[in-house]
Design brief:
Blueprint: H1 7-24, E1 32-33, E2 39-40, H2 42-58, E3 63-66, E4 70-72, E5 78-86, H3 88-92, E6 99-106, E7 109-117, E8 122-127, E9 133-134, E10 137-138, E11 151-154, H4 157-161, H5 167-174, E12 177-180, H6 185-191, E13 197-200, H7 205-208, H8 211-217, E14 221-223, E15 238-241, H9 247-253
Parallel strand pairs: 3-5, 11-12, 11-13
Antiparallel strand pairs: 1-2, 3-4, 5-6, 6-7, 7-8, 8-9, 9-10, 13-15, 14-15
Helix pairs in contact: 1-2, 6-8
């Protein structure tokens, strides 16, 4: 493990990203479709390039993995993982569930994560070995003694049912109700004790690295659909539970 995790520096990155996002939020933006048909805007690219420039200037041996500009290999085992705007669709319609995700891995393991929502000015900071902080105060996931009381979140029914049409139905049948399209903001709400389970698929590495220290630091559990830890080279699936005692039961639904 490294001697000191650069949490203050990571917050500086989040502050910088927020300034750019606020400049563009609520203004007409050209939406570009990438090869995988996912959307990207000038704001996404400007944020990531700016953050990459800062990291390369201050920590030139660190690696960088970003959604828009690929990977710079690490020379020291540390890799920053950036999603400049997680929830670009929400951003383009001025819905403030999007956020900037900034993560840091030591080798394969996520050790630092930030979710920053610059319009609502909500920020979650997760650091390995520490309790998750939300806007300056520690927060915790809530206990969920029965699945029938659980609030379940996902992007959409089709997102998790592509190879099993009944998967979404199984989740919906046993939980209290379902909420949709919360982007990274859902994971902050889980850390604050408002959502009990989240299942997603088709995620990039930049979509989940920052989430791991935040959910774990709030007392929750986050894995892939096989129950394996989410790492720098993890697969595209994710299951997060605020109450770790319910995690295996949700895995059975998958």
């Amino acid at each position: 493990m490294i001697k000191e995790i650069p949490t203050t520096f990571a917050q500086h990155l989040a502050d910088t990203a927020g300034d750019i996002a606020r400049h563009y939020f609520g203004t007409p933006l050209d939406i570009i479709s990438k090869e995988d048909e996912s959307p990207v805007t000038k704001a996404d690219r400007e944020i990531e390039q700016t953050l990459r420039d800062i990291i390369e200037r201050e920590y030139p041996e660190d690696g960088i993995l970003g959604e828009e500009f690929g990977i710079k290999e690490s020379k020291n085992g540390l890799t920053w993982v950036i999603d400049p705007i997680d929830g670009t669709k929400s951003f383009t319609i001025a819905r403030p569930t999007f956020g900037t995700l900034i993560g840091l891995c030591h080798e394969e393991k996520p050790i630092l994560g930030i979710i920053d929502q610059p319009i609502l000015k909500d920020r979650w900071i997760g650091q390995i070995g520490h309790q998750t902080i939300y806007n300056g105060r520690p927060v915790s996931c809530r206990k969920c003694p029965d699945l029938s009381q659980a609030i379940f979140g996902t992007g959409s029914a089709s997102q998790i049912s592509h190879n099993d049409p009944q998967r979404f139905d199984r989740f919906e049948a046993v939980t209290r109700y379902t909420v949709y399209q919360g982007d990274c903001y859902f994971y902050g709400l889980m850390a604050n004790g408002f959502i009990d389970a989240i299942a997603e698929d088709h995620l990039g590495i930049y979509d989940f690295i920052a989430l791991v220290p935040i959910i774990e630091g709030a007392g929750g559990k986050i894995t892939d659909w096989k129950g394996l830890p989410k790492t720098l080279h993890g697969d595209s699936t994710l299951l997060a539970c605020g109450d770790p005692s319910q995690h295996n039961r949700f895995l059975e639904l998958i």
